[in-house]
Design brief:
The protein is of the alpha/beta class. It folds into three domains: 187 residues, Lambda Exonuclease, Chain A, CATH 3.90.320; 79 residues; 166 residues, Nucleotidyltransferase, domain 5, CATH 3.30.420. Helices cover 42% and strands 16% of the residues. It has 17 helices and 16 strands. Strands 2-3-6-7-8-9 form a six-stranded mixed β-sheet. Strands 13-12-11-14-15 form a five-stranded mixed β-sheet, sandwiched between helices. Strands 1-5-4 form a three-stranded mixed β-sheet, with helices on both faces. Strand 4 and strand 5 form a beta hairpin. Helix 1 packs antiparallel against helix 2, helix 1 packs antiparallel against helix 5 and helix 5 packs across helix 6. The radius of gyration is 26 Å and the shape is globular.
């Protein structure tokens, strides 16, 4: 019997299917990590090493992967009352926990006149539910071992801040996750794949995406939710081809789904089968004839901008300018120099929340002109809602791939930008990525925001377009 681990808990909160596959498949069935994924993982390990280096830690000593021996060694350290224990082994018959840190606290337990609580070290900027439930999982194991439930758990975030939370607030959810994982361990078919934003970065994507494509799974449809999918399947609408010709007569026959939602999902199925976006009617003022595009590449771990790029006018052959930002304190001046060549009242189109978030963080201390922020126009929601796309889309890469038919990674992955800064050709890599993304955004504006609305398709086209995985 495979033991349930903290990683399974972490995975389940993200995607039950991911946890099910991890419980049943060997590691050899996963796709290899990309270079930038390895880079991100290494930074996480380095951060943990730096954090624990300042603590008087001890760690249990045991042969590699001999977790029974590790549990015995851990119990000895706990009984001895060591102040900090690093990478403890918490073991039961069907569960295994390897928490980053256990911290000794006063108060009696089966260990003596002390007990412990769990702390995990993360590289995120704020606590997340998957991280919290992982700590709860470790805490429940620890409670069985020491005969006392700690009142709190904690996460150390990337800025070194410790975020404590009450275990009682999350214990019931933790029990539910453990029960769900036991069911999946017995029967992995209890978790079907569902296309979501994390799929593109999952090491099981080479398995799930082709499986969903072969089944014409409804989650591939733009705008589909878990609830809508369940209702449609109960109504006998089980494939994208079914949905493309689904014209229910009245609320009961559409499972009380809103008529407008059913129309949009049906349009999404038709777009999938056509293999192209279906542009919707929209206000003319959304066309932004006189505008500039602003884009940035960031290092999310370090919380800073690596480079800015501007394209003006918003055409693929528009004038492109960019600035690398060697140090965090140079960000403001770099953007100011780029925008000096853009007309003062020109709308500044961007994609997503990165630019306004950065601006909000820096504007107050710089006493910035508030009129600049008023010029920001986010293309993210506009591009999502101005057309029904031929597949569910979650970010710029999905829009480029499924609305334009281009490879969004032809100039590299944005997540790799931080890794490039240490390379001899860093400037060329950053420049090429900024230019490719800006040209893709310009093409999306032309195709979607400036395109002609596509009329309602009453009879679905034949499923002639194969979905790429």
């Amino acid at each position: 019997m495979r033991r349930i681990t903290g990683t399974h808990v972490y995975s389940y909160v993200k995607c039950p299917r991911l946890a099910a596959l991890d419980l049943h498949l060997p590691r050899s069935e996963r796709r290899p990590s990309t270079e930038w994924e390895e880079f991100a993982a290494r930074r996480g390990r380095d951060f943990e090493d730096q954090f624990v280096a300042g603590l008087p830690i001890v760690a249990p000593s045991y042969p590699e992967r001999d977790f029974e021996a590790g549990a015995v060694a851990t119990r000895a350290l706990l009984t001895a009352g060591q102040e900090w224990i690093h990478q403890a082994v918490l073991l039961t018959e069907d569960r295994l926990g390897l928490p980053d840190l256990l911290r000794r606290l006063p108060g009696g337990s089966d260990l003596g006149e002390h007990h412990y609580e769990v702390i995990d070290v993360k590289t995120s900027g704020r606590p997340r539910s998957d991280q919290i439930l992982q700590v709860v999982f470790y805490t429940r194991l620890l409670a069985e071992l020491q005969g006392r439930m700690p009142t709190h758990g904690a996460l150390v975030l990337k800025d070194g801040r410790e975020e404590r939370f009450a275990i009682a607030d999350y214990e019931a959810a933790g029990r539910e996750v453990e029960a769900a994982l036991r069911r999946l361990r017995d029967d992995m078919t209890g978790a079907r794949p569902f296309l979501q934003s994390g799929c593109s970065g999952c090491y099981h994507d080479v398995r799930c995406l082709p499986e969903m494509t072969a089944a014409q799974d409804l989650s591939l449809v733009h705008g589909m939710s878990h609830g809508a999918k369940a209702i449609l399947e109960d109504l006998g609408c089980r494939t994208i081809a079914d949905l493309a010709t689904f014209h229910p007569d009245g609320a009961r026959h559409r499972g009380n789904l809103e008529a407008a939602l059913v129309r949009r999902l049906r349009r999404g199925a038709q777009a999938y089968l056509l293999g192209k976006p279906l542009v919707e009617e929209r206000p003319r003022h959304d066309r932004f004839a006189d505008a500039a595009l602003v884009h940035l590449l960031t290092d999310a771990y370090a919380g800073r901008v690596l480079a800015f790029g501007v394209l003006h006018p918003v055409r693929e052959d528009g004038a492109f300018a960019w600035q690398r930002v060697p140090e965090g304190g140079d960000e403001w001046q770099a953007l100011k120099q780029l925008l000096a060549e853009v007309p003062d009242r020109c709308p500044l189109l961007h994609f997503g929340g990165a630019l306004p978030r950065w601006y909000a963080e820096h504007a107050f201390e710089r006493q910035a002109d508030t009129s600049l922020e008023a010029r920001f126009v986010d293309l993210d929601k506009r591009l999502h809602h101005a057309a029904v796309h031929p597949r569910a889309v979650f970010g710029l890469a999905d829009l480029v791939r499924h609305a334009l038919g281009r490879d969004p990674l032809r100039a590299g992955h944005a997540g790799a930008a931080a890794m490039w800064t240490a390379l001899p050709d860093a400037d060329e890599r950053l420049r090429r990525k900024l230019l490719a993304d800006l040209q893709d955004l310009a093409a999306l504006k032309a195709e979607i925001l400036d395109g002609h609305p596509h009329p309602e398709v009453h009879d679905a086209p034949p499923p002639a377009v194969a979905e790429s995985s």
